Amino acid sequence: MAFLIVVLCILVLIVLVTLAKCNAFLAFVIVSALAGWWLGMPPQSITAAMQKGIGDTMGGLLIIITVGAMLGKLVAESGAARQIAQTLIGLFGTRYVQWALLVAGFIIGIPLYYGVGFVLLVPLIFSVVYQYKLPAVYIGLPTLAALSITHGFLPPHPSPVALVTQFQANMGLTLVYGLVVAIPALLVAGPFFARYLKRIPASPSPLFQTKDTAEQALPGAFNSFLTALLPVLLLIITTGLLHGMSKSAPLYGLISFVGDAPIVMLCCLLVATFTLGVAQGKPLKDIMNIYAEAVKDIAMIMLIIAGSGALKEVLAASGVSEQIAVAMRSWHIPVLVLGWLMAAVIRACIGSATIAGITAAGMMAPMVAAGQVNPNLMVLSVGAGSLMFSHVNDAGFWMFKEYFNISIKNTFLSWSVMETLVGIMGLIGVLALNTILTN
């Protein structure tokens, strides 16, 4: 009966978000209250559980997500993202311009949130398309695949960070494993798949052509690359140092503090404030305004994650999460596959990768806590599932269709298939990595 109630709650959530067009945060709050009531919790315990879930979830995420948004906004506003793309195009040359944009999408996608990265990169893609007279979908899709992969697999993006917190995984290890899984997924869903898309007709508007910007107005290439990649470099370096060091070593505590994700992101923001802000002649007041705008951009994302925390805590406090975990053990499906499958089903129903990932995580958390699976790999498995089949209920589907001006049929054949390949290759990569780590 408890399992049926949870299924009903997920269905209500899907209906509220899709058919009723309800705000996702409000939908989570409504469903959390209904779930507590249907599961027989005392009324006063329901609100207490919801408040605790929101507090516990956001307590570990607020600094990372907020500071990450500020860093990404500054990378975009300062011209560093454009400098990265231009440098890579010049380095790779005309013949390999697709690869240049793909690498640019991956690097820019690490600090930038998906929607910001999409809007920023599409004009760059179209400028290359017009300049070299190349097929738009063939050139552009691998770049957007790179954005999608960083969004689903790699911290400091909201969904992976939220999953790391829910599964009590290690941020640095998750990032390292995520990079290992992301590269083959990107190659298959990007350049390999794009070879079959050269004949898809697309007529992007000339309005999206980029205007030339004076080189001196952009930050230097080294500065741009280093600032954008600094969070990844610091997390990888500190994680490597900690794994090669005894906990009793004198510097262990200091490196552990410096390598903690919120501190890493704060340090990177302080560096970027100087390298991409003050050193480029921007007044500090203007930089702070950029940061304020960044918080507005991700406010709803944070609320959605908070709402998911409320539902997770209600299910945990009622005891139903543990009941589901026990029941799932009899399904004889590998835990990593099960987490991927749950996220994929919710993604197909709701359309939001973030909601799909964090909703599935609430169901899988007891099994991870019981030590049945590597929590870092579970983050990636759920993340891969949350990127599966994107269709008409996903904003990304329509952004791609309208920006590239292609038919719905060709959007399915290109965008939807690409996202599905990312999800499938992500699962294959996670299972392969799990085999290596357990042997």
From TrEMBL:
This is Gluconate transporter. InterPro entries: Glcn_transporter. The lineage of its organism: Bacteria, Pseudomonadati, Bacteroidota, Chitinophagia, Chitinophagales. Keywords: Cell membrane, Membrane, Transmembrane, Transmembrane helix, Transport. Pfam families: GntP_permease. It comes from Chitinophaga qingshengii. The chain crosses the membrane at residues 30-50, 57-76, 96-129, 136-154, 174-197, 218-242, 254-278, 290-311, 331-361, 373-392, 412-437. Belongs to the GntP permease family. NCBIfam families: gntP. It is found in: Cell membrane. It is a multi-pass membrane protein.
